[in-house]
Amino acid sequence: MPDAIGALTAAVADRYVVERELGRGGAATVYLAEDRKHHRPVALKVLRQELGSQLGKDRFSREIAIAAQLSHPNILPFIDSGEAAGLLYYITPFVTGESLRQRLEREHRLPVRDAVRIACEVAAALDYAHRQGFIHRDVKPENILLSDDHAVVADFGIARAIAEVGGEVITERGIAIGTPEYMSPEQASAERELGAKSDLYSLGCVLYEMLAGEPPFTGPNMRRILARHVAERPRPLRAVRPDTPPAVEAAVARLLAKDPNERFATAAELVAALEDKRPTVPASGVGVARFIAVLPFVNASPDVDADYLSDGLSDELINALTKVEGLRVASRTSVFALKGKPQDVRATGALLGVSAVLEGTVRQAGGRLRVTARLTATDDGRHLWSERYDRPQGDVFAIEDDIAHTIVSTLRATFLADLVEPAPAQRTSSLEAYGLYLKGRFSWNKRSATGATEAIGYFEQAIAADPRYALAYAGLADAYALQVDYRGVPVREGFERAKAYAQQALALDPTLAEVHASLGWVLFIYDWDWDGAAAAFRRALEIDPGYATAHQWYSFVILTQRSIDQALVEGHTALELDPASVSIRRSIGWLYYYARRYDDALRHLRRAIAMDPMSEENYRMLGRIHTQVGAYEEAERALREAVSLSPETAYATAALGYLYGVRGDRAAAERVLVELAARSQTGYVSPVAVCMVYAGLGMVDETFAWLDRAFEERRGWLAYLKVEPTLDGVRADPRFTALVRRMKL
User: 77-92 burial string, b = 16+ CB within 10 Å, else e?
Assistant: First the structure.
């Protein structure tokens, strides 16, 4: 076997560098490896040689290819697979956290809150997989990974592939596929046709162990454990864990029923049962009965590019219902994270903590608009209301108002008697302008260089169609501000226009929270008008206290002017309001970075990367944090990933130069300076980028020379002058104090 591993290592050397063994299981040995192309750590899992021989390359490849189609936030994906030197292997992302088994070994028993949360996240993964026709067959703590304390289920399809080898009994001991402590009675009896409820039983065993500190059945040998699964009942959970809520104990008992028909019908039903009884109280003090989610309406039009219309309808309904006093509405980012991922409504309700879900479709064809909408209770899946609207396309505003009013009336009759009717939304009278505005926001939400450019074009067209459309001006302000960083354009080109358009929007409609927030950001990051920015954000939050983006941006004003602790409170408020926002999650990471609380910063950045693994800024920030704590190899790996994701921007390259400087690789840092100088001959390079490299090299005079250039250009980075760790090496210089004074910080 060692020779075979050596041969496999050599065979994959062009793609992966095998570094060390991580662990061994019954079916495979796991190695830590580096993906040469993407400079990231991965897990290389090699099946036992005798198992691979029985399975065969073709069958293995077929089963892995099927399993690789599973795409869910709580399922660990497959990156690659193959055969080399007579060994079958597959590649998955390397999870930097720990497995549930490792946490149980350390803590023995978990808090009820954590155990229920982990069980719900695993159940969400199982529910998705079951609806795709997959049974895991080996749900156990070793296959549940905790990434930033969130559960990710590993090895979907592996047990299925093994089971394809002509029967369940294939190991040298003649034991059925699976792990004895977590096998359902039907699995322990070696039944060939296993259903989704077998996985639910296994999850019940895992939940029992998280609460009790041991699995429901143990024994001196495997056969004894299997026999107990078939014939015995476990000890009542509350006998070994008295603080277990009765509802949770009942759910576990139902999961561990010997007869599959007595278990939950689906994993989504389990999630609903556990979530409804989870011992938590929403931070706002408002119960789940006052919480509704508007899921992204589905574009059913012949034109696949008409998503802007279906997304826009969803946005308008979210905005209208948000204004209903006494009703909480799941944020746009939270619900749009579920777009294209159909789930049982009960699972959706449990995941978002809502009592009702609105969903529907939009079809646009031949000047007509057909909208179907359905309101469903999440506790039992019952339909509360449904309707179909078939009208001329120009009636889209009336349709939105009708749906919002009907939803409130329905909720008043079923859940909440004290809700008031929503006021009509203030919009443009131009359907053309409205459609263009929706396209602009759709592009802006991509948070990319291309998206910012597209958004500017759409917002300009919307204003041409309706010169008094305030939201379009606010959108244009946001788009010009966005492109400063995402396209690396000079500050004046972006923020002077952003300020002008924000002021026009404010003149047209001062009742919009978005307008005040857009102006506040320009006043903060470009005008350096600290008091004016704070006042603008406070006004935005007076108009709409639930506007997460205003809390997010305001946290940075507080950071630079008043208190890091207060800034963190404001940032976490934004995160509470919009937990699925990658931008807000990353902002929390920035706040902790500026606070020098690097462990907390890393935790949030890893979560942001899990949410969006294609974001250049996520990896760039991760690299900067690793640099500050001296983890230079990890820093370089993250920064190279950032450069590969967005090679046209200079900030990731500059962060690499800073890294080279602080770790003593002067020649490499100077090469980065040469590269930045060459770039400046053909395009714009921010003086901040050059300043960072000189700061890493410890070249103080040059650092201040480029700080002065950044001041002259009014680069927003200088707003963080007092808290930026990159500048710690020059703080004692009198020129730094003078610059702080010039900035009026």
Answer: bbbbbbbebebbbbbb
